[in-house]
């Protein structure tokens, strides 16, 4: 739309007189034209069912507001009309009713309160069959339009045709009413139009800069013949979403009756009753001013909606929707929290904005957001996740394409709150852009996080990953080359890497009428490659190990969300970024048993998880018993137990455990205690911290133990600064030089960083010698 406003201003000077001539006399009804009723002939029904031709008389006029407008204008239009539809024989008369509409730039059109077409971003004109929404007597067409660069404008034509009647035609002209602010009931028949301004006619259809506008051709969702599933599974396309009216669907959740609430990425919410027992699918728009949701949940007799949008009146945030009068329709919206954006003022939005909401086994609401979304500023001091920082020893290279150079810790996050959104706690941090999450039957939380696609081939590229999100977890995403390594003791490692992709919806198979292994599976959707992975988790100490298989693969199949409904079937949506949406149902028709199954029994792992949960109960809470309870587990062979113990200790007053940390002797105990002390202790303790690390016999440590010690050195220098003792840095450098180079690539990487930081005189020569021996690009 560049330079459109300038051209329109010049055109207005020329068409002003014509515009005045086009205006209908005050008090007159909108312009209509009647012609002789059609006669039956070859091609009659094709003509009857063809969309209206905007170039044929009467032609719609381009209309906008009565005065000049600034960029970003939102404008409302409406007209009331009586098409003289008979009270009887409605099935035959009218025989067809078509709407053609074009908007500059974004537009939503409503007939008798129901949305019928929508367009955005200066897209082609849209058409819709509106016959089912017409009624005898008074009808209302209402339009909401927005233009980012100038005045908001629309052109519209309605044709109502009958076999034995003259066509009724209505077009946009000066008889339409307009205003510029949100008003209650503006789409309905009871709205008061008396004090509204008349629309201003810019000129006829076909004028520049719009010209003749192509009509968006309806498309269909991917047919099931293009979908591959394991033997015994069946996919059904139960709804091909009409893009012009229902947009592109990106999230959904079932309600207690098995209906699905779904959301268009940039439009309203819908309630879908799946086809059952011979009854057709039913799709109803939720009659509330809310939408653009990337996460929904039915809980506490409410629909919780995470809005991801800049648009008023419901910008990005968590909202609670209720049915207050018992008519089975949501009618109340309560705002629980707004989310800000980390790159600019205003709401947090976009593909790295706020995403899913989930009910936890503790009856708390869990929310996940991408790394462009501000963490709520009022998170409670009882939060399990605390003390985050960039923790970069050396200066990093920011993203080469400038994607997120100003986004710092905590990155993407998961928070939890109560059903009323009163208390908010940070539960986990360090994600890039996890879109969804799910709890297993054991009450363990998992998510599916993304990578930076164009980083592949660099040493800091991270594959898309399945994460086990334990209490207080830090997942280590940092911008550019600063991403943490999976072996850092202050990071929780991923459960499974899955290469390249674009993670979207996830769910466990709990409740599905599937064979046992799929009931236990974690289903993880990949939008970019059109597949759903079945991730099979196996208990492994306090955590899990995993392997995966492709469960559903489609071409194309831009999968956005996946849920298990109360009928035991899997429901899948495709769409996003304006692509064609569809709703699919996946069932099992094979011969294996689909009886409900229990979690995998593993006594040792169950005991390890119970211990971890006990340690996690201290996270964020001061408890005199915490240090003694957690300390022995700093040296546990189980990494997640060590992690839980350290976070529990960090939650306590450092004065109660500093001396214990500085005197620890076991390698894992000492290392994790020092990491905790560096994260929360006073920098004046650094000489004693370096002394404690110097007592460790580094050549005798395993690679895992040595990597943790090297990270402890890094955190010491990052958090406490360059040593104040002039001899301290050379002493540490001399000690580490004896280990470099090492037979382990990861150890070499961390030694290189430390020796560069400490200005070792040997590091350049040794590093270049290592570089010459490498055979891969990374």
Low-confidence stretches: 1-42
Q: What strand line-up does the widest sheet have?
A: 5-4-7-2-10-11
Q: How many angstroms does the end-to-end distance come to?
A: 44 Å
Structural class: alpha+beta
The largest sheet, given as strand count, sense and whether it forms a barrel, is: 6 strands, antiparallel
Helix content: 10-25%
Shape from CA axes?
elongated
Mean pLDDT over all positions: 90
**Annotation field: number of helices:** 14
> How many strand segments?
38
Assembly type: single chain
Beta-sheet strand percentage?
Answer: 25-35%
Calculate Rg over CA atoms. 31 Å
Which properties best describe this structure?
disordered N terminus, six-stranded antiparallel sheet, alpha+beta, 38 strands, five-stranded antiparallel sheet, elongated, 14 helices, 778 residues, single chain
Sum this structure up briefly:
With 778 residues, the chain is of the alpha+beta class. It is built from 14 helices and 38 strands.
Question: Topology, please?
Answer:
Blueprint lengths: L3 H19 L21 H5 L12 E4 L8 E10 L13 E9 L1 E6 L2 E6 L6 E4 L8 E10 L5 E10 L2 E7 L5 E3 L17 E2 L1 E5 L22 E2 L4 E8 L2 H4 L2 E6 L5 E5 L4 E5 L8 E4 L7 E7 L2 E6 L9 E6 L9 E7 L15 E6 L5 E5 L42 E6 L6 E8 L5 E3 L5 E5 L15 E4 L4 E2 L21 E2 L5 E6 L7 H4 L2 E5 L4 E10 L2 E12 L4 E6 L5 E5 L7 E7 L14 H14 L9 H5 L8 H12 L7 H6 L3 H14 L5 H9 L8 H18 L7 H10 L7 H13 L5 H10 L6
Parallel strand pairs: 26-30
Antiparallel strand pairs: 1-12, 2-7, 2-10, 3-6, 3-8, 4-5, 4-7, 8-9, 10-11, 13-35, 14-38, 15-16, 16-17, 17-18, 19-20, 20-21, 21-22, 23-24, 24-25, 25-26, 27-28, 28-29, 29-31, 32-33, 33-34, 34-35, 36-37, 37-38
């Amino acid at each position: 739309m560049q330079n459109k406003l300038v051209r329109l201003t010049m055109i207005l000077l020329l068409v002003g007189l014509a515009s005045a001539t086009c205006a209908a006399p005050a008090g007159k009804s909108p312009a209509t034209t009647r012609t002789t009723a059609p006669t039956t002939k070859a091609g009659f029904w094709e003509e009857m069912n063809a969309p209206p031709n905007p170039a044929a008389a009467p032609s719609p006029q381009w209309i906008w507001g009565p005065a000049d407008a600034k960029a970003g204008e939102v404008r409302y239009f409406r007209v009331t009309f009586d098409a003289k539809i008979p009270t009887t024989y409605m099935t035959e008369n009218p025989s067809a009713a078509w709407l053609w509409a074009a908007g500059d730039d974004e537009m939503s059109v409503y007939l008798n309160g129901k949305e019928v077409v929508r367009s955005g971003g200066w897209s082609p004109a849209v058409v819709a069959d509106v016959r089912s929404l017409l009624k005898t007597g008074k009808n209302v067409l209402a339009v909401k339009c927005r233009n980012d660069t100038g005045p908001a404008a629309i052109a519209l034509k309605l044709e109502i045709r009958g076999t034995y009647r003259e066509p009724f035609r209505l077009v946009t002209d000066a008889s339409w009413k307009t205003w510029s602010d949100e008003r209650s009931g503006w789409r309905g028949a009871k709205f008061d139009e008396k004090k509204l301004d008349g629309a201003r006619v810019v000129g006829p259809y076909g004028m520049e800069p719009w010209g003749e506008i192509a009509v968006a051709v309806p498309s269909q969702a991917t047919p099931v013949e293009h979908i591959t599933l394991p033997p015994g599974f069946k996919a059904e396309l139960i709804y091909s979403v009409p893009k012009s009216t229902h947009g592109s669907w990106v999230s959904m959740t079932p309600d207690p009756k098995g209906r699905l609430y779904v959301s268009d990425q940039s439009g309203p919410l819908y309630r879908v009753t799946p086809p059952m027992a011979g009854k057709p699918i039913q799709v109803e728009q939720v009659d509330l001013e809310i939408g653009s949701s990337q996460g929904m949940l039915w809980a506490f007799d409410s629909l919780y909606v995470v809005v991801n949008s800049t648009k008023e009146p419901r910008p990005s945030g968590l909202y609670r929707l209720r049915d207050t009068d018992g008519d089975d329709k949501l009618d109340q919206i309560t705002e629980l929290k707004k989310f800000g954006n980390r790159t600019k003022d205003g709401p947090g939005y976009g593909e790295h904005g706020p995403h899913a909401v989930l009910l936890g086994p503790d009856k708390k609401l869990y929310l996940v957001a991408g790394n462009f979304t501000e963490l709520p500023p009022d998170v409670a001091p009882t939060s399990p996740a605390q003390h985050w920082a960039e923790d970069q020893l050396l200066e990093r290279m920011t993203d080469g394409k400038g994607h997120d150079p100003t986004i710092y810790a905590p990155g993407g996050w998961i928070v939890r709150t109560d059903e009323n959104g009163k208390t908010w706690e940070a539960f986990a941090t360090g994600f890039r852009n996890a879109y969804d999450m799910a709890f297993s039957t054991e009450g363990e939380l998992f998510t599916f996080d993304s990578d930076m696609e164009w980083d592949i081939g660099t040493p800091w590229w991270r594959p898309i990953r399945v994460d086990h999100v334990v209490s207080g977890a830090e997942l280590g995403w940092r911008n550019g080359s600063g991403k943490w390594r999976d072996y850092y003791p202050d990071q929780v490692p991923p459960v499974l890497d899955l290469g390249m992709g674009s993670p979207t919806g996830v769910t466990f198979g709990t409740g599905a009428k599937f064979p046992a292994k799929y009931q236990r599976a974690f289903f993880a959707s990949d939008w970019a490659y059109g597949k759903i992975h079945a991730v099979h988790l196996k208990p492994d100490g306090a955590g899990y190990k995993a392997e995966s298989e492709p469960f559903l693969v489609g071409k194309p199949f831009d999968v956005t969300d996946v849920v298990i409904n109360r009928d035991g079937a899997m429901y899948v949506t495709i769409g996003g970024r304006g692509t064609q949406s569809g709703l699919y149902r996946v069932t099992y028709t094979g011969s294996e048993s689909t009886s409900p199954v229990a979690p995998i029994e593993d006594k040792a792992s169950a005991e390890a998880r119970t211990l971890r949960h006990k340690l996690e109960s201290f996270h964020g809470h001061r408890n005199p018993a915490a240090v003694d309870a957690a300390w022995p587990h700093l040296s546990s062979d189980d990494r997640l137990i060590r992690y839980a113990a350290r976070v529990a200790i960090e939650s306590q007053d450092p004065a109660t455990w500093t001396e214990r940390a500085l005197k620890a002797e076991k390698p894992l105990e000492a290392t994790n205690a020092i990491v905790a002390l560096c994260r929360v202790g006073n920098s004046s303790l650094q000489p004693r911290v370096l002394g404690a690390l110097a007592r460790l016999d580094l050549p005798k440590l395993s690679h895992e133990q040595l990597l943790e010690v090297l990270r402890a050195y890094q955190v010491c220098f990052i958090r406490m600064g360059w040593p104040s003792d002039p001899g301290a840095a050379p002493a540490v450098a001399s000690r580490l030089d004896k280990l470099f180079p090492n037979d382990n690539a990861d150890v070499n990487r961390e030694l290189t960083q430390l020796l560069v930081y400490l200005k070792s005189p040997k590091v350049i020569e040794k590093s270049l010698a290592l570089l010459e021996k490498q055979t891969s690009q990374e």
